[in-house]
Amino acid sequence: FCFPQVLLLACAEDLECVPGFQQKVFYIEKPFKFTEDQLVLNLKFDDCQGNNKLNFEVSNPDFTVELDGNLVALKNVSEVGRALFVHARSEHAEDMAEIFILEANEKRGALKEILKLESSLGIPRQKRAILATPILIPENQRPPFPRLVGKVIRSEGTEGVKFRLSGKGVDQDPKGIFRINEMSGDVSVTRTLDREAIANYELEVEVVDMNGKTMDGPVRLDISVIDQNDNRPMFKEGPYVGHVMEGSATGTTVMRMAAFDADDAGTDNALLRYNILRQTPTKPSPNMFYIDPEKGDIVTVVSPALLDRETMESPKYELVIEAKDMGGMDVGLTGTATATILIDDKNDHAPEFTKKEFQATVKEGVTGVIVNLTVGDRDDPATGAWRAVYSIINGNPGQSFEIHTNPQTNEGMLSVVKPLDYEISAFHTLLIKVENEDPLIPDIAYGPSSTATVQITVEDVNEGPVFHPNPMAVTKQENIPVGSVLLTVNATDPDTLQHQTIRYSVYKDPAGWLEINPTNGTVGTTAVLDRESPFVQNNVYTALFLAIDSGNPPATGTGTLHITLEDVNDNVPSLYPTLAKVCDDAKDLRVVVLGASDKDLHPNTDPFKFELSKQSGPEKLWRINRLNNTHAQVILLQNLKKANYNIPISVTDSGKPPLTNTTELRLQVCTCKKSKMDCSASDALHISLTLILLSLLSLFCKSFA
Question: Does the keyword field hold Metal-binding (predicted)?
């Protein structure tokens, strides 16, 4: 009976000789350290043909295998990782052995796992027709190719049959990597392998007769690519920027650096260790930070007092971080990245005025910024710990002043927002306080330097006189006599301490109706006030007057006068239209509807009274009918011959006294045929005798007047 091995090793009773290591997997307990020339274990390799030109290679350069198979340490070694790989090659065979290094408490459990795995695989105790032991191939092998890497054996011989290999890497993409000698069962690799591209190949091998009929199998053939340390650690997640608050306790975690290694994570080839190569700047300490070699966590190692942003040469540190594989051993490959660490500010400095008292001068009546208050703050200008907030805490009862922060300079801009009056107060004293947007840390407080006094001097200026009231208003009837007094304006000089005189003048008088006494301000008329003038809007006439003091230079004030004009009946009504046409054979003898209008206001307008002057001749030719207060209708009493007729019509308004206007309505009697009206070539003009008589009477009366 032969103790079964995990990787389907054949027992001596199965086959007389199997080329390769007689045992491929070893488990040894990790010592405190391997000492120089220490025998670790003995490896038995047999190529079944005398082991000509036998050569061993060990994955760890600190170990070697002698020709008798003894694995020994070349020097004192304390760290070797979790496994060693031994590659043996002779003139006729090649194989790989694995030595797993276990902690003391892992060994017993590992043996149990071996037996459990063997049981789960169902390895038979009887002879097997095909023996296909797993093949281990180091990556990055150099030519020549093809290279023999293993052998498949058929216990019943190979006469009359041949081996056939299939699967990914043979007849499936990537094709042609492996091939098998149909007669001998030798398995070869045809090119260099890359474990990071494909780490394992699962192939199938079977025995077929010369006609291709399967005789045995298929049996799985596992090929594993042994990792070599051919990938440097890489930092892929940059840029790496961390922040730490100034004054933080020693050991405060700033950030984590994590590198990636494409090699086998289960080997030292991907076991990374971190280290800080360089720190810039090097003050106040060349070792401000420490990096956990295994986790990559960067922490502070200086005292909180040294982590003071305001005393540092720069609040930004750059660390060159190195990640090295092989557990940080000298033979490991390295990769680097830069970690930028920013020291964040906290509000540990109160703003302070650059001086205790500021001076400002402003002219009365002027608004705007009068002085900029300067402060100093040692905190970070990009934060609320530096930005200032100003407030007036005394001396501003009338809210004449405001203060705002200049966002670029952090200065306090003190402004006058309500004009100051020299005659009321020539001096003002303000008490200003400055704070930060962010609150101070608990052990810092605002001191006396966070307040300042501003002394403001108001300069007197010659102010213009002021009308009282302004605007002024008066109501008068239109058409009052020229020279009538409307009112007396009143203006006073705000400069009460200067004792100046005031003279008046007309500034704007659109219609030219007014004058003003330059000494006493009496306003009178120089023309008739006409409510119907185009210069009057909504019954109101507006004029502007000036009051000029005797200062040097003189100052001027403007006053506005609104004159409301009351209507009088001074406009006769007008009649429209004044022309009408009618056919000589018209059946509808309603000639025209007349309307009347009046520029005056009610009650000096409608209702209007419409009248016809007396008609001459034995028969009356037309009449007028009142339709409403503003309209009447002219009606023919009979058809007339084609001619032009003038009809005198009187319109009287309702004013007291009423005004009458007589207007002639010109009536054209035309010939109408086929919807066309012909008013040309009319007969001689027929003029109303009544109108002629009225005209003669009017001339007679004027001659005796």
Answer: yes
Cα angle value 212/216/218 (rounded, 5°)? 90
| Backbone φ, ψ for residue 546 (5° rounding) | -110, 140
How far apart are the C-alpha atoms of 557 and 471, rounded to whole Å?
A: 12
* pLDDT tens string 6-25: 333 333 334 468 888 888 88
Q: What are the domain boundaries of the chain?
A: 22-102, 130-226, 234-344, 352-459, 466-566, 574-674
Is 286 strand, coil or helix?
A: coil
Q: Is the dihedral of CA 27, 29, 30, 34 positive or negative?
A: negative
- Under CATH, which number does the domain 234-344 receive? 2.60.40.60
* Amino acid identity at 656: K
For the segment(s) 466-566, the CATH number from 2.60.40.10, 2.40.10.240, 3.90.580.10, 2.60.40.60 is: 2.60.40.60
**22-102: which CATH number, 3.40.640.10, 3.40.30.10, 3.30.70.1560, 2.60.40.60?**
2.60.40.60
Distance of alpha carbon 265 from alpha carbon 23, whole angstroms: 25
CB 268 within 8 A of CB 326: yes
Query: 190: which residues sit within 8 A by CB, 6+ positions away?
Result: 145, 146, 176, 177, 178, 179
Average pLDDT over residues 300-307: 94
How does residue 95 score in pLDDT terms, banded at 50, 70 and 90?
confident
Tell me the CATH number of domain 574-674, given options 3.30.429.10, 2.60.120.1440, 2.40.128.130, 2.60.40.60.
2.60.40.60
Kindly give, in sequence order, each residue whose CB lies less than 8 Å from that of residue 593, ignoring residues fewer than 6 positions away.
627, 631, 632, 633
More confident residue, 191 or 687: 191
pLDDT at 115 over 70: no
Contact 672, 634 (CB under 8 A): no
Q: Which CATH architecture group holds 130-226?
A: Sandwich (2.60)
CATH architecture, range 352-459: Sandwich (2.60)
Rounded distance, CA 612 to CA 667, Å?
Answer: 14
- Confirm if 178 and 144 have CB atoms less than 8 A apart: no
329: its two tokens: 């051993």
Q: Is the dihedral of CA 309, 313, 315, 318 positive or negative?
A: negative
Whether 257 contacts 337, CB under 8 Å: yes
Mean pLDDT to the nearest integer, 170-180: 95
User: Is this model's pTM higher than 0.85 or not?
Assistant: no
Instruction: Tell me how long the chain is.
Output: 705
> How far apart (Å, rounded) are the C-alpha atoms in residues 671 and 691?
26
Place of tokens 């200008």: 381
Q: Which residue in 258, 296, 259 sits closest to 276, CA to CA?
A: 296
